[in-house]
Amino acid sequence: MLTILTLPVLNDNYIYLLHDPVSGETAAVDPAVAQPVLEVLDQKGWQLSCILNTHHHSDHVGGNLELKQKTGCTVIAGLSDRHRIPGFDRGVVERDVITIGTHSAQVISTPGHTSGHVVYHFSEDNTLFCGDTLFVMGCGRLFEGSAEQMWHSLQKLKALPESTQIYCAHEYSQANGRFALTVDPDNRQLQQKIELINQLRAKHLPTVPSTIEQELATNPFFREDSLTLQKTINKVKHTPIEVFAEIRRLKDHF
Ligand code: ZN
Ligand code: FE
């Protein structure tokens, strides 16, 4: 079993600590800051082996240099981001495999939010760390990519096993849910998911992980093929990419 700890940091970021009890190896996914990671490592008596970055934004790499300096960990990120990831050691591309002890993850390239964005899929652990590509009921903004690129990236995630647990890098679920309702108002599962999320947030609990199955049922960016949704946004008989682009545009102006 891979132990996964969720660390809420900054306004709404999550850092994930992955620990393999067999080998003792530990990874930090997108350490926005170093201090909370160092504290948990200290408490648990864990040694940081590597950092897994999904992309170069400062709220994902801000802790890289301090963690590397204090623990000697290796920094892994998308190869094309090598010039803009602090402490970069190892570049990965689509289908590369990285290991945390006995656990391995396949790298999936997901350009759209940024050009070099990658996600880490621990297939045997049924777990995906998707950074700012996929959120609970949402997806990342298109800073360095086109709607077409992001759509293709999301198709790769849509195709993963439905039981895959998804760990995204931000707690955006309540705002995402409010938008999702405007484009998919009659979706019962969406209404139920929002209720569940409101209950969790009332207790200040994270709304991650979600699952691919839940996202297929509720995430408007996974539901461009829904005729009801297409009718609501006036995009019947358009290509899936055009529908997706319109949902993204509406969300940007929401
Ligand atoms: Zn970002
Ligand atoms: Fe971010």
Instruction: State the shape.
Output: globular
Series of secondary-structure elements, N-terminal to C-terminal: EEEHEHHEEEEEEEEHEHHEHHH
Write out the distinct hetero groups bound to the structure: zinc ion, fe (iii) ion
What oligomeric assembly is this protein in? single chain
Euclidean distance between termini CA atoms: 41 Å
Number of separate helices: 9
Helix % is: 25-40%
What composes the largest sheet? 6 strands, mixed
Radius of gyration (CA) equals 18 Å
Q: Please state the structural category.
A: alpha/beta
The CATH fourth-level homologous superfamily: Ribonuclease Z/Hydroxyacylglutathione hydrolase-like
Low-pLDDT windows of residues: none
* CATH class group: Alpha Beta
Total separate domains: 1
